[in-house]
Write a structure and sequence with these properties.
mainly alpha, 1 helix
């Protein structure tokens, strides 16, 4: 259980980072 949740958290963080990068790219 802990391993699966850890992977989900990491994937979510990566998705959030990608979204931020896209927003910054669009803003620029």
């Amino acid at each position: 259980m802990s391993h699966s949740t850890g992977r989900e958290n990491r994937t979510r963080l990566i998705l959030k980072n990608m979204r931020v990068d896209i927003y910054r790219y669009i803003d620029n």
